[in-house]
Structures are given as structure tokens and as C-alpha cells.
Amino acid sequence: MKHRSHLLIVLTATLMALAATSCDTMRRFVSQDLEEEDFIIGKLYEDELVKETPYVPPTPQGKPSGGSALDKARAGGKDMKLYAAIEPWMGVPYKYGGTTKQGVDCSAFVGHVYKEAYGITLKRTVNDIKPTVTKISKNQLREGDLVFFVNSHGKPSHIGIYLHDGMFVHSSTSNGVSISTLENSYWSKHFLQGGRVNR
User: Fold this and answer.
1) What CATH number does the domain containing 170 carry?
2) Which of 23, 130, 147, 163 is the most exposed place for a label (fewest CB within 10 A)?
3) Which residues contact 197 (CB under 8 A, 6 or more apart)?
4) What is the Cα–Cα distance from 130 to 125, expressed in whole angstroms?
5) What percentage of the chain reaches a pLDDT higher than 90?
């Protein structure tokens, strides 16, 4: 009887260990599956590598021709708080998911500038920011408005801050934080909408 009882205990313990291992394996499988699904969804909304030569804004009439791209853009602008907030970020490299001056993605850059210039905290991602703004067309854009772009999958994937005369500043995959123009063939084709935040 003792032998049978001992055998039953060993058998029960073995079955419980197998069940636990099997549950752990199942959990890992489901977790891995979800991570892969999130990764695939994430890729749909990811910024694309856009190879563009750095844009140099034209020098405004009556202004000295020297200076950086930001200096030239600032010379034709009005919102000096905006340009002051942008300046420390110019040239910071692009990094997907980055939030610091070692590397920053498009939405984190826009968020930092908006916080510094206007005291406004934006949501973290392009998809979270987009529903919180007033949608505007390209010809309604004013200095400080947001500009949204889609990638080749047609998904909203990129954001920048409009300056003036078709220029916007953003964290570009090829040039880092830099100024581009809406007339660029890629940005013109992939422009989605402007967005205005009450400020």
C-alpha cells in the first residue's frame, strides 16, 4: 500500500511538472507570437529611409547670405520661441524610438520642441498625436503647425513642424534633425495633412 501511495505521489508530481512546463512553453509561444505581431504592425507604421540631399533655404532678400539652414529659415520667420527650441536639436541623428540628443525619432523631436516653445505636452507617437489636432490643408499651414506624412504602406508614419514658405523641420531618417521642403518629390507625394494645436 505504501508502495502504491508513493508511486501515486511521484506520478502526480511528474504530471504537475509536465503541465507547468507545457503552460510555460505555451506562454512563451503566445508571447513570442504577440511580439512578432507587434513587430509586423510596427513595421507598417515605421519611418522609411528617405535619401535626400540637405535642403538649404534661400536667403531672404535684404539679409546676409551666410549662416546655417536654421539661421536662413529664422530670418524669414516670426516665431522666435519656436526657432530657439529647434536650435539645440539641429543635426541630432535620427534614431527609431530615440528621445535624446544622442538620437531622436520624429515624434519625440516634435514633442521636445512643442514642450520647450509652447509648454504643450504632445502624445508620444504620430498615430496618437494625429487625432488630437485640428486637421488643416497644405495651403492653410502657418508657422508652428504640424505636418503629417504617410509611408509607402499608406500609414501615418512621420511628423514635422512647419516653418514657412514650404519649409518644415523634422528628424529625417537620412539627415537627422534638419530642414526639408514640401516641394521635395518624396514629401510632396507622401504628405497627409497639416495639424494645428491650440497654443
Assistant:
1) 3.90.1720.10
2) 23
3) 114, 118, 120, 122, 132, 133, 134, 145, 146
4) 9
5) 64
In a domain? residue 29: no
Q: Does residue 170 have an active-site annotation?
A: yes
Chain segment 20-66, per-residue pLDDT in tens: 444 444 444 444 555 665 555 566 777 888 888 888 888 777 676 67
- Residue 2 domain-assigned (yes or no): no
Among the listed residues 3, 6, 106, 112, the single catalytic one is: 106
In this prediction, residue 108 has a pLDDT band, given cuts at 50, 70 and 90, of: very high
The single residue of 3, 6, 153, 158 carrying the catalytic annotation is: 158
Identify whether 51 is part of a domain.
Answer: no
| Annotated catalytic residue 153 | no
Q: How far apart are CA 8 and CA 37, in angstroms?
A: 43
Task: Establish whether 6 is a catalytic residue.
Answer: no
**108: containing domain:** 69-196
CA dist 175 and 93 (Å) reads: 7
Question: How many domains is the chain built from?
Answer: 1
**Residue whose C-alpha is closest to residue 164's, from 47, 77, 64:** 77
